[in-house]
Amino acid sequence: MNMSFLHDWMKMKQVIIFCAGFLGLIHSCWPEAVCYVSDTQKSYVTSLAISMAQSVGPCVVPDPSVLLALNLGNMTDISTQDLLVKQLKEDAAQKINGNKPFSSGKVALYVMALQSSCSDPTELPNSNIDLVHLLETKTKEELDSVASNGSPLTTWYQVSLDVLGLCVMSKSSAIEAAHISAKMIPTSPSGHTFSVDTAAVAVMGFTCVLEMEDVPIDTFTAVKYTVGALVDMILDAQKDGLLGNIYSTGLAGQALTAAKSYYSSERWDCPQTLKAVTDLIPQKKFSLPIAAAQLLPFLWGKSYVSVKDIPCPSHEAQQISVEYTIVNDLIGENFKYSIVVSVKEGSTLLEVMEKAKQLDPKHFSFQTETSSWGSFVTSINNLGGSTNDKTYWQFFSDVTPLSEGVGTYKPSNKEHILAIFSKY
Ligand code: B12
After folding, report:
1. Total tally of structural domains belonging to the chain
2. Is residue 30 part of a domain?
3. Cα–Cα distance between 339 and 165 in angstroms, integer?
4. Among 310, 307, 281, 305, which Cα is nearest to 50's?
5. Whole-angstrom Cα distance, residue 145 to residue 312?
6. 251 ligand 1 Cβ < 6 A
7. I need a surface site. Which of 18, 121, 317, 323 has the fewest CB within 10 A?
8. Closest-CA residue to 114 (of 310, 300, 323)
9. Tens-place pLDDT, residues 15-67
């Protein structure tokens, strides 16, 4: 048997194993693209993806770009992705709680990576951390710096990541950030701050914003103009198929994929670019996980802008409504008040009570004490239980007493919770 055929077959077998089994793929590896990797190139792309995925581990610092790439490749190796999501959330919480450096672009990468896994970046577990809100705050600091001294707090690369992160989260603040950036970002290759990498991320952020709803016409015009200038710079940096150097080609290829309606197709020899980079894979030029992670989305015909098209159950839609009634027919001035509150599905009764208190503090204020079983409700509406009188607040779901405390009980949609001042 011809040895090169055998070699190709072995590689193809790897592809098949990879696509169908190793990472448990549920979709095809190669979706619609500007151009496609050839069948022989596919085996290299696949082996690169495998080694990138294998870089993930319990004792390895998590990289949001790796999670982004895995998700953009529709690779559902649940254990790898779950581990990365968990690690990234823990790492973000540690950085924030420990006041460790967490630059705006880094926050943007964490936001996009978690969103690409349909894991809500606005709510980190067991904390009040909202990474999207943090991203908005950090982007504002960057833009304030641009306004006061003409340059961002960090770099235009990071500000561009910020615009992209806010845009994939459909935040209207992305529009203003894009407008300011489009007017201020250097678009001349002579400027020492220019890099193809930066232009590429900026093009992705701007292209994403141009697709948003309610973009004012002056913003649209300014952003579209800058996209044109940056795309020109990337296209002018073509050399032997590469866009800039080896390591900017992945991001630049993603950018040209996302912005394909902003230049004429004959200006970019996309198959030549694919060939140039895939030829470098066997030379181990992309052995660093970050290098593979920035390249793979392009090889799969995707870009970071595609994160917003990943179908996720809407975080907002998972709201439930709970009716909450407090009743005292026992002592003093009797009362009965009801309120309907809207909370996230999976919220505890304590969170329902907090929401009720927030909406109507006059009637629904309450106090708790911490015990080994969690929060014990001591008083509601200024009426407290007493060991002397043997009174307490008893909780019901309709007519059934709850068998859990308010800190752990999770009401379901349309449930009616009653707190009745009772005797024991
Ligand atoms: C901005 C930038 C810089 C800035 C970083 C300072 C700053 N205030 O941001 C400056 C100009 C200092 C810089 C320097 C270098 N850079 Co640089 N840099 C980038 C760029 C465009 C963005 C990085 C970023 O902000 N990421 C987003 C943030 C949120 O993630 P982060 O992990 O916090 O990013 C930090 C690191 O990336 C680090 N960093 C930046 N460059 C390099 C390079 C190396 C080798 C290392 C270890 C770390 C590092 O600085 C970032 C900010 O703190 C990337 C492009 C890319 N495709 O990633 C190139 C890039 C990472 N840099 C690269 C290179 C080659 C260098 C230099 C080695 C160039 C040189 N000839 O000296 C030097 C580093 C020398 C050294 N002292 O060790 C290459 C790396 C390629 C590779 N295979 O290793 C890239 C991919 C550019 C490219 N296309 O060639 N860089």
Report:
1. 2
2. yes
3. 37
4. 281
5. 35
6. yes
7. 317
8. 310
9. 333 443 334 333 334 444 568 898 889 999 999 999 999 999 999 999 999 99
Going from the Cα of 270 to the center of ligand 1, the distance in angstroms, rounded, reads 25
The strand pairing partners of 418, in sequence order, are 325, 396
Q: Which of 282, 309, 336 is the last residue of a domain?
A: 309
pLDDT tens-place string over residues 141-193: 999 999 999 999 999 999 999 999 999 999 999 999 999 999 999 887 665 55
Q: Give the Å distance between the CA of 422 and the centre of ligand 1.
A: 66
The CB of 162 under 6 Å from ligand 1? The reply is no
User: Do 196 and 305 sit in the same domain of this protein?
Assistant: yes
Measured in Å, residue 195 CA sits from the centre of ligand 1 at 11
Question: Which residue out of 197, 204, 277, 290 has the highest number of ligand 1 atoms within 8 Å of its CB and is therefore the one to mutate?
Answer: 197
- pLDDT, one tens digit per residue, over 363-380 is 999 999 999 999 999 999
Q: Are 277 and 415 within one domain?
A: no
65 lines ligand 1 (CB under 6 A): no
Q: Is the distance from CB of 243 to CB of 254 less than 8 angstroms?
A: no
* Ligand 1 atom closest to Cα of residue 198: 21
Q: Tell me the C-alpha distance between 306 and 88, whole Å.
A: 21
* Residue 344 placed within a domain: yes
2 within a domain of the structure (yes/no) = no
Domain that holds residue 363: 316-423
